[in-house]
Amino acid sequence: MTIQKTKIKEKTENEKSSLPSNNQDNTLKKILREVITLVVGKQAEEIVDLLDTKKHVNEFLLAKKLDLTINQTRNILYKISDHGLVSYIRKKDKKKGWYTYFWKIEVLKSLKFMKNVLIKKIGQLKHKIKSRETKRFYVCDRCAIEITEEHALICNFTCNECGDILSLKDNVKLIRDMKKNFEKLKKELEFLEEEIIKETEKVEKIKLKEIKKEKAKTQKKSGKKKIVKVKKSIKKPTKKSIKKKLIKKPVKKKSLKKTVKIKKKPIKKKLVKKKPIKKKITKKKSKK
Question: N- or C-end of the chain: fewer Cβ atoms within 10 A?
Answer without folding.
Answer: C
